[in-house]
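Checked the freezer inventory, then went back to the computational side. Two predictions to log before the end of the day. The first one is the construct we discussed on Monday; recording sequence and tokens without edits.
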Amino acid sequence: MQFTASSIMRTELVTCNVTSTLREVVRKMIDEKVGSVLIRQNEKFVGIIIDRDILTALVKKKDFDNISAAEIMSAPIDYCDANDNLETCKKIFEKTK
């Protein structure tokens, strides 16, 4: 039996807008108990912020109230289709290490 991405993925996406402040992103991560937030512009996903990005901003003494998600997000984002088998997903993400 082959597992697909849909068998292990989270179905409710946690998102913020590119104009959200870093403080808003962190609040969303805490409230939703997640380590990453997809960043959207209009209805398109344009980046991602992970907990490591937050730590980096903290060490660099960024102002969490005056820096936008767009300024620290990783982009573009890599993704696989929900119907892709896990081996295909693995190959997609290994390419960008």
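The second is the one RB wanted added to the comparison set:
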Amino acid sequence: MEPAKFVQKPMNRDVKEGSKVRFDAMVKGIPQPEVIWFINEAEVVQSDKVKIESKPVRTELSTSLVFENVTTEDSCDVRAEAKNPAGQDTCSAKLTVQ
């Protein structure tokens, strides 16, 4: 077993209203970790505006939080939490919409 660990973390994003924004992360671990995304400490519920995309890439998991057509009210803190039976890891970033 190998604990969950982010090998690529999302970066802070500063964008204009109406933009599409992606926060990308890559996590590894054995067994493959489960990733949960949070917006301002609330677990993400997917909608027309916010989506989670995840796919295995070799021995890692690529995961993204995607915002469509952002407004200034969408400015927030985002966090990803990865966990498996061997351990967990977290990473975070900030979205600023102008």
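For RB: DSSP finds no helices and nine strands in the chain. The chain has a mean pLDDT of 97. Let me know if you want it refolded.
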